[in-house]
Amino acid sequence: MSSRHGGPSSRRMARRGVLAAGVAGISGAAVAALHSWSGSGGGRRPAGQAAPAAGQGLQLPAGTEERTVTVVQFVAHPDDGLYFMNPDQEQEIAAGHTVVTVCLTGGEADGRNFRPHDPRARFAKPDRPGFARARINGLRRAHAVMATGDENSPWDIRLVTPVSGWQAELHTLRAVPRVQLLFLALVEARGVAAWRAQSLKGLWQNAVVSLPQLPPAHSPIRRPTRVTRSRLVACLQAILREYRPTVVRTLDPNPEHDPVHTGRPGYAPGHGLAYYDHQDHTHATYFVQQALAAHWAARPATQMSVEHYLGYVNAHLPWDLDGAVIRRKARLLDVYGWADHGSCGDPSGCGDLKVGGGALRGAWVQSTRYRAPGAASWAARTADGRLAGFALLNGQAVVWYETTGGGPWAGPVPLPGGGLEGQVSVVSRADGALQLFSVRTHLPDPHGAGVHRREVVTAVQRGTTADGRPVFTAWTSLGTSETGGVASMEMGFPEAATGPDGTVYLAVRNQGGGVSVRVQSPHGGWTPWERLPRAAESGVRVLDGLGLAVDAAGRVHVFAPAQRSVLHWTSPGRGRPFALARPTGLPGAAGPISALAMHDGSVRLAYREPRTALIALAEVPASGGPALPLGLGGPGGFGRVALVHSGPAQAAPPVVALAARNDAGTVSVATAHPAPQAWSRGSALHVHSAGLVQDAQGRLVALAVGTDGALWTAVYDGAGPDGTATRWAPAAPTVRRTTAVARAAGSPVPHTTGRTA
Description:
It contains 9 helices and 38 strands. By secondary structure, the protein is α+β, with helices and mostly antiparallel strands.
């Protein structure tokens, strides 16, 4: 997040163009200002000498090759990860994972490092290199606290060349060398939405041929360069190739547009819509997506998950974290923001004073949200009773499957077709076949030509292999709920449900902040997209993360989280219009809604209550009356809550089971009859949302895609979990599994020791 004041071991394979430089020529004062410096002399490689082995240029942490989990975070500005990606990054550091943060710009803003409203800022001379260095110092202090508890823990700095001719600073935390920061030092846009050709947006739109570097004060970068579009993508691709991450975290590629400011003077005139986000966030992510596509085309061995995080729009949405997590995020941002004014020995400053002491001001720290909210259902039982789970790895859908009912799992096996984004949802059709839904993104070509757009896609099971693997048709497009190019980028992620007559219903959040649906008849034909009647909501309207259920009578229910209420649309069935139902009487939801049809015609809902992160369970009666709150509970965390029947669907009273992310970043499971009971713990750290399904023996199976790219499962006999720990384990062996993975089953909890400013 760049300030609104102007923008908020070695490997055996050789890599061309990766070269480490030493400290020759760096002044003693500069070395002192940078705290500590390690590295030997280097320089230009003699002609004919072999390129250094991969990892020598970027100096990978010792043992990276043996580590199961490596996380690479791509951010636009130094504080983006602290605002928008925590608590995830702190949990990963505490779990012993390799965590590398790559910062594309210096975030130099207006070059004035003062608290907001400090009158001295008006008369201060801009010092953009100095402010960029202060932000680097602040980010190092915050990461040192996360990893060691001591913001003064020293760092080693090394000059690296990810691609030929482009020097960057690599900072490694000496006490915990698996924590690294890589600064590429490109100039920032210096404005949230105002058009400036010398920016990542200008480079993406081909308004400029190249973008300059702005080295921070007393930087070892001696030869600043200008970076073309292709060089930037090549650099990011080289980083992916070197670190081989299992998880990539970056910012929001599809922010909601701001209708109030679009078209106003100073807000991207002639260059597209204004958005509820910083233009650097969005366009940095576009370049990361292009680098990921190129990386995956080279067929890497590593199975990689990608998570995108919402940015400034969080200020307009209900808070989705509990108080303890919010306070922890704010304390780390105070460290980054130099709130204590302690000395770090650098005349440029020790942090970003625009942030320090005021992290709660912008209402960004109170939430952490994924752009893809996670599917309500990404695992299902096949027609022969075996379980199958679906996720996206390397931009492709993959399937894990039981080779026998209740037996061992195999996978992940990729499904043909790439370019997929966010999540996969699955429904069981009337004929027993599974049907998948996802979103496909079409990127411009490497030169920027072509339409940048998104579309909903579907694939249908067409058979089963001898060992039980479901086989699918190619992905086919269902188009977009929008009309025209840029608007379709805001379309949400699909939720689907099957009616008792075999009709498939599909719903997405549309660009206008409402809901659009398509319906597939049992014979396979699809209706056009239909926009449901608008709700009387203002501001940022419907959140992504719809709930969809079809009851035993064939009535269709669509639920949407909104700022002040849970919205509810109903239809009597296929071919009948949807109507906005009477108010549910439920307060606004902080995130996605999961909906489950019960045998008595009622519908159960599970979602996060705003501000507390507690999980609310409610019932919409079959009579159509107001929803009935059933109770609150939960293990903390944020995001989607999985919801399934626990035991027979016709049980009286009905019992459901829930699975959700907890405050440790792992999965907790509970039963609810009617309110949530004690919550179990025990999974590995995971991405996306947890899954929950009943197997052919009636047992409850919880699933999560680990940060190691493996499917993790826990099986509960009887009615479900009783609050005791249950061992999670990888469902299928993976080539990257080590003892570190086995340790992850112990539910790591982030360290909170050490002082903060």
